[in-house]
User: Which sequence fits this backbone?
């Protein structure tokens, strides 16, 4: 059901920027793995996963429960995992530590350079860059939001370039409640084509419903929604409730839990 | 601008890839041929140039006949020269228009003063016939917005229909429909004599076309009911019947003796035709009640006046 709402019922969309926002009360880690599994199941796809929050073993263990073997995909080359939890960004870069580059202060150019190198090594594939999560990218940038914006802008150029590349970014809805940070949250929304909000129920916690997923599409006006989004007739937002099971997640329309 | 005037346009693309405009189905081939694209999107800070110097990235290829890449948007003086040269090359000594998408991207790398100076230099240049720029209001504070509003002679603001059913309670959001294909367009035009004229219209986007319609005063405030499986609104008949219902304990206030309605249907008809006993109806006339005075009416005749009996004595506590 979420696939229909996202427009992923037929084929995976291309050159899209997806922003997933979650809260403390409703984490979107399940959604990240759900989408990752969906992408890896598509033939000729390539995932560049930037892990800042958890080690690879964590994602691998949870994905295996859901029937997806991340280690196998990594061995086959359809998953490239960039570990920024235990390694620094400099260790991933093949760019010489040129003083002119580093002196600009934005070390994230090294991560962008890593993306470019991977895309160059595997051209023509439907590539998805997944970043978990943006707030930890800010840590690498030492709190400099301008550097993060610059980095995301360049990532977005990859999504709109001639090569087939999409972005899936995870951030936290309640991390930007401070008035100075709302500009960053607005900026993230502005550069996204689709925004997915994972929020708890307004009425509180429940046994059968663990939260709600609200999907908002911002479709460019020269794209026909009927062709790229199965089941959509108009560019509007849709909400679904979800329940987390042991090995899977169920999505259903509000009030129609099976 | 494209359909009305045969003017050449220099498009400074900072928010979107110029390919987006080139692929836009709303433009004809003839209209597209009048564009000169200045690409500030693909490499605004020169990262691709740096990576290209290390043989890690190919140079950005020329995509359109009239196309130039700006590798440093922090240098607005150079960008100004690029725009003016592009216009001169395209228009060949005839005036041309400049469209900037968007100023917000330029403000991300430059100060308000330098961007305002850049705009003013374009405005004041005799060869630029018109200048159109876009600004995302959510990314800037009021000072930035007002600064650019004062510079411009016409402001167009686009916002969602105010009836969009979406309530935000800190980190919580209700499941709702948010319509992105329609909204309200407010046009503020400053005339040369100083008069400011404002116009509000509703617009709808259908694919690559937009339609405009007049909006009434209440249109923008009209509530859109969420799409649920049960009916939330009242029909006319239901509305009329609701208006007829007399609420209990409501004073009729029709000039006659004020009666407190006790909720029974018999009391709703003409009071004079009903034989009411003292127990059925408590009559309180307006003249009897003095301001600040409390009138106590005994529930029954059995109760002795001035009784000091505590009504809570029967409680076993």
Assistant:
């Amino acid at each position: 059901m979420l696939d229909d709402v996202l427009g992923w019922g037929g084929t995976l969309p291309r050159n899209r920027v997806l922003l997933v926002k979650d809260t403390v009360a409703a984490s979107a880690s399940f959604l990240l793995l759900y989408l990752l599994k969906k992408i890896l199941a598509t033939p000729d796809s390539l995932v560049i996963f930037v892990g800042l929050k958890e080690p690879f073993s964590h994602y691998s263990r949870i994905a295996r429960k859901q029937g997806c073997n991340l280690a196998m995909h990594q061995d086959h080359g359809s998953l490239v995992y960039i570990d920024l939890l235990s390694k620094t960004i400099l260790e991933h870069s093949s760019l010489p530590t040129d003083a002119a580059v580093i002196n600009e202060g934005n070390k994230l150019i090294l991560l962008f350079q890593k993306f470019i190198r991977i895309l160059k090594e595997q051209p023509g594939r439907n590539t998805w860059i997944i970043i978990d999560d943006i707030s930890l990218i800010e840590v690498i940038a030492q709190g400099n939001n301008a550097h993060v914006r610059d980095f995301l802008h360049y990532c977005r150029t990859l999504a709109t370039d001639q090569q087939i590349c999409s972005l899936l970014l995870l951030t936290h809805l309640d991390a930007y409640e401070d008035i100075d940070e709302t500009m960053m949250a607005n900026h993230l929304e502005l550069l996204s084509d689709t925004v997915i909000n994972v929020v708890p129920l307004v009425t509180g916690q429940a046994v059968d419903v663990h939260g709600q997923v609200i999907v908002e599409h911002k479709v460019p006006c020269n794209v026909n929604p009927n062709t790229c989004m199965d089941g959509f007739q108009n560019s509007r937002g849709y909400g679904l409730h979800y329940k987390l099971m042991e090995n899977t997640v169920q999505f259903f329309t509000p009030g129609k839990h099976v | 601008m494209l359909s009305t005037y045969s003017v050449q346009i220099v498009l400074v693309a900072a928010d979107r890839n110029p390919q987006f405009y080139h692929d836009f189905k709303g433009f004809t081939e003839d209209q597209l041929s009048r564009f000169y694209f200045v690409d500030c999107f693909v490499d605004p800070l020169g990262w691709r140039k740096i990576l290209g110097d290390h043989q890690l990235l190919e140079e950005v290829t020329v995509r359109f006949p009239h196309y130039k890449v700006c590798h440093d948007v922090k240098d607005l003086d150079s960008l100004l020269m690029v725009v003016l040269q592009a216009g001169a090359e395209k228009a060949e000594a005839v005036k041309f228009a400049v469209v900037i998408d968007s100023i917000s991207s330029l403000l991300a790398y430059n100060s308000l003063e330098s961007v305002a100076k850049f705009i003013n230099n374009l405005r004041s240049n005799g060869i630029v016939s018109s200048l159109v720029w876009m600004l995302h209001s959510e990314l800037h504070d009021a000072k930035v917005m007002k600064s650019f509003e004062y510079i411009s002679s016409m402001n167009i603001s686009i916002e969602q229909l105010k009836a969009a059913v979406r309530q935000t309670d800190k980190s919580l959001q209700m499941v709702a429909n948010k319509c992105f294909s329609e909204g309200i367009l407010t046009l503020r035009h400053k005339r040369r004599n100083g008069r400011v004229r404002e116009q509000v219209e509703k617009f709808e986007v259908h694919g690559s076309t937009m339609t405009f319609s007049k909006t009434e005063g209440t249109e923008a405030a009209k509530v859109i009911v969420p799409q649920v499986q049960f009916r939330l609104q009242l029909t006319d008949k239901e509305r009329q019947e609701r208006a007829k219902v007399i609420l209990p304990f409501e004073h009729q206030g029709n000039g006659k003796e004020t009666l407190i309605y006790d909720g029974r249907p018999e009391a709703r008809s003409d009071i004079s035709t009903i034989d009411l006993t003292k127990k059925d109806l408590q009559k309180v006339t307006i003249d009897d009640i003095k301001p600040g005075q409390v009138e106590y009416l005994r529930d029954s005749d059995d109760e002795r006046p001035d009784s000091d009996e505590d009504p809570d004595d029967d409680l076993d506590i």
Observations:
- The two ends of chain A are 13 Å apart (CA to CA).
